[in-house]
């Protein structure tokens, strides 16, 4: 399978690259600074470019079967500015499947089900800026024709791969407090083949 990975040099993205290459998929990574990626593999193609550049997205997405976005907020609006370009390119190319990394803040609140967690007392985060960015992405994906899945981890330490965790559609598993980067990446990668959470958010935690 040909996978376009955005955010390949990030904490979660770098693990997804490893999982995908181990399974013999062909991975194309669109990266602003190619020197940041320390993986060398015959099935890994590096394209230097920017997710905020329509031409770079179109160049990278050509011939892909699926898109995985592990982009993070990094105190910027990169997420909300890039997703319209990604959606446009995918729809133009007839690519349906996209998996993105979100945040538990955009899951439905259990205490106030009509709002998202970051909008309720359920969230312990002092700042809502990152959640608002992810919320914009969620809204744009809902309005698209794509088969999207948003993986929504809670507190995300580097940690070790445990290999077992709880998942829940559109909400955070009860009492979920954290999930490691490697386990989040593993679950995200598994969605390449899975069809269980099409057009859904997925809460993930230990």
TrEMBL record:
Ranges of residues in domain NAD(P)-binding: 7-193
Stretches of the chain forming a coiled coil according to its record: none
Molecular function GO labels: oxidoreductase activity, acting on the CH-NH group of donors, NAD or NADP as acceptor
Family matches, as InterPro entries: NAD(P)-bd_dom (IPR016040), NAD(P)-bd_dom_sf (IPR036291), Polyketide_Oxido-like (IPR051606)
Pfam families attached to this UniProt entry: NAD_binding_10
Descriptive protein name: SDR family oxidoreductase
């Amino acid at each position: 399978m040909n996978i376009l990975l955005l955010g390949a040099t990030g904490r979660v993205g770098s693990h997804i690259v490893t999982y995908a290459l181990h399974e013999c998929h062909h991975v194309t990574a669109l990266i602003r600074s190619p020197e940041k990626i320390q993986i060398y593999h015959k099935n890994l193609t590096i394209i230097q470019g920017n997710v905020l550049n329509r031409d770079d997205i179109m160049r990278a997405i050509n011939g892909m079967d699926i898109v995985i976005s592990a982009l993070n907020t990094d105190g910027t609006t990169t997420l909300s500015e890039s997703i319209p370009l990604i959606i446009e390119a995918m729809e133009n190319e007839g690519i349906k499947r996209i998996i993105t990394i979100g945040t538990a803040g955009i899951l439905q609140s259990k205490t106030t089900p009509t709002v998202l967690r970051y909008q309720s007392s359920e969230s312990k985060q002092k700042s809502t800026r990152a959640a608002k960015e992810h919320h914009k992405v969620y809204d744009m994906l809902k309005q698209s024709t794509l088969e999207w899945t948003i993986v929504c981890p809670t507190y995300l330490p580097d940690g070790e791969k445990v290999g077992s965790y709880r998942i829940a559609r559109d909400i955070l598993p009860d009492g979920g407090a954290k999930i490691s980067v490697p386990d989040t990446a593993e679950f995200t990668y598994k969605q390449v083949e899975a069809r269980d959470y099409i057009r859904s958010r997925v809460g993930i935690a230990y």
